[in-house]
Amino acid sequence: AIGVLLFFMPFIDIRCNDMSLQKVNGAELATGFKIKGPDSGNSFLDGFGNGERKTKTGFSSNDKKDPNVYALAALALGALGLLLSFSNARLGGIGGVLTGSLAAASLIGLLIDIKRQIKADLSLKNGDAGIKIAVDFTPWFYLAVVSFIVAAYFSYKRMKT
Question: Over the stretch 134-158, which tens digit does the pLDDT of each residue have?
Fold first, then answer.
């Protein structure tokens, strides 16, 4: 239950030149989110007639990021593990071990996937423009990974008794 609830806390912090632009929680990663520009005063109109706003980072302010498969899998596995924990000891134990360890593995896959995507996006969009964009994972993300591992361990202990 703790692992699933942690999905409503910020998982990543998108930073530009050491200034936080946006914090994205786990549920938004799992369902997709819209990239917000810094402030309306820090962005400018790209051209005079089209009305599309571009931030100084080169990302348009209406960019919508697709749902991340790893975040969606971790959230679904966490919810399934929570439901299985209410069942009998044998099924709940085996299911909890599987769902907890797979959810933790999915979150680790999410970390690797986002780092890879950011590296690829930056090389395509910015080149050497002097803009440093970084994605930092918050302690809430790491707590979610640990909580799924702990849930798998407790499910294993439950199964053994």
Answer: 888 999 999 999 999 999 998 888 8
Amino acid at 127: G
Q: What residue has token string 């890879």?
A: 116
122 is written with which tokens?
């930056």
Coil, strand or helix at 142: helix
Query: How far is the C-alpha of 69 from the C-alpha of 29, rounded, in Å?
Result: 9
Q: pTM of this prediction?
A: 0.75
In sequence order, which residues have a C-beta less than 8 Å from that of residue 153 and are 6 or more positions away? 100
- Percent of the chain past pLDDT 90, that is, above it, reads 30
Element (H, E) at 16: strand 10-16
Coil, strand or helix at 34: strand
The residue to which tokens 């986002």 are assigned: 114
Residue at 122: amino acid letter: L
Cβ atoms 133, 117 nearer than 8 A: no
Instruction: Tell me the HSE value of 7 on the side-chain side, using a 13 A CA sphere.
Output: 25
Q: What's the residue count for the chain?
A: 161
Are 159 and 91 contacting, i.e. CB atoms less than 8 angstroms apart?
A: no
